[in-house]
Write the structure tokens for this entry.
Amino acid sequence: MILQSKAAVVTGSTSGIGLAIAKALAREGANVMINGLGDPGQIEATRAGIEAEFGVRALYSGADMTRPPEIAAMVAEAEGAFGRLDVLVNNAGIQYVSPVEEFPPEKWDAILAINLSSAFHTIRAAVPGMKARGFGRIVNIASAHSLVASPFKSAYVAAKHGLVGMTKSVALELATHGVTVNCISPGYVWTPLVESQIPDTMKARNMTKEQVIEEVLLKAQPTKEFVTVDQVAAIAVFLCSDAATQMTGANLSVDGGWTAQ
């Protein structure tokens, strides 16, 4: 229970990686605020389930990650409700794929807002309290695309590269305040979002499900295996532990060897 009596905010955490991280933090004793989109009834069931399973307080914020005032209000609400905010995980993200000359400007703006700028706004709001308490753990969920590029993903790649740069800069600012700032960069993670893309890819490429997995999704990952949400969550928990006190400004690849090539 390394996070007993501490409190966390995890953005983009109503499903997938974010939800796995929120549950992993709760398992270690942290009160958690989840955030994201989805069916209200399902979100409430998720929130209540975290409280019931782990014996912590769990709150939900529907803050829109494209709206800075809502982001600031979310952080303030968490601090007010929990009396502190010790862990911030920036996981919210969206994707859009298009040749650059056809890339809709509004999609570019949305991806930069959610995948990069929202992390700036959450960090800006959370840092004063963390500095005052002399403790904080900020974990930014980047991507293998924070280190390498793929075609037709100009906005996503730009945002994830930017997230790593911001992580390093803020880590240096907070190095003497007991606050660490790190990135986790997963490769392809098996989530409902990824799974839902398979039928369309099968149709577009005239492939079987197995071919899509092996020849499209896992082509870049030498292990030929998906990263799991629990593996990413375990690394996030480690970064919050005392063992990681001297880890700051780091970008941890969890990509089956993708970026080793």
